[in-house]
Amino acid sequence: MQFTEQVARFRDYMPAADRQTFLRLVDRIAADPEGAGSQLVYTNDSVTRGVREDHVMINYVVTSFFVVAIETDIYDASRGFNVV
Predict the structure, then answer these.
(1) For the whole model, what pTM was predicted?
(2) CA within 20 to 30 Å of 75's CA: 7, 13, 47, 51, which one?
(3) DSSP alpha helix (H) spans, the chain
(4) pLDDT in tens, 42-65
(5) 49 near 34, Cβ under 8 Å?
(6) Are the C-beta atoms of residues 11 and 69 closer than 8 Å to each other?
């Protein structure tokens, strides 16, 4: 699993509980990138997928050699993060 610079920086500054959720999601993605818990992010793109757990979201691209996390975010308005 590889990370874009934006994802790596965000990961490093996440609150501890969210970082644990993020790492669980990364493990789940690495085990099965196209698993049942993921969904296509765009209807016209079959390689960009996304997963979500609690308030943490990761979008990633699946290639034949790598899985690259391209975006991550936290959605929790009560703590001042984005609102879905």
Answers:
(1) 0.86
(2) 47
(3) 5-13, 16-31
(4) 888 889 999 999 889 999 999 889
(5) yes
(6) no
